[in-house]
Amino acid sequence: MSKIFWEISKRNIRIHMLRSSLAMLGIVIGVVAIGAMGILGNSMTQDISSSLSSVGDSVIVTPYAGSGGGMGPGGCGGSSGSSQNMYLSDQN
User: Fold this and answer.
1) Pick from 59, 66, 53: which is nearest to 85 by CA?
2) Domain locations in the chain?
3) Angle 17-56/2-15 helices, nearest 10 degrees?
4) What digits encode the pLDDT tens for the residues 16-28?
């Protein structure tokens, strides 16, 4: 009984060769597209994580050098014009 189904399926594939080829091509394109989207998502996640981790370990230290209260030319009261960046890698 099973042999009859295999014979019928082989005959239908032979008769409808273009339709069978297009179906196989669609399946291959779909699998490749889903795989590519997964790889793209993972690489974007790693890229964003690495760029955020390089920003996250920096600390900006500005000394207090003003009388405060008013908004000066720098945009906030008490800011001096210079600042130094301190990183975790600067520790002894």
Assistant:
1) 59
2) 1-56, 57-92
3) 90
4) 999 999 999 999 9
Q: Which residues of 31-70 are buried (b: 16+ CB within 10 A; e: fewer)?
A: eeeeeeeeeeeeeeeeeeeeeeeeeeeeeeeeeeeeeeee
In this structure, what token pair is assigned to residue 18?
């273009």
- pTM of the predicted protein model: 0.49
Q: Nearest 5°: phi and psi at 42?
A: -65, -40
Per-residue pLDDT of 39-69, as tens digits, reads 999 999 999 888 877 776 666 777 776 665 5
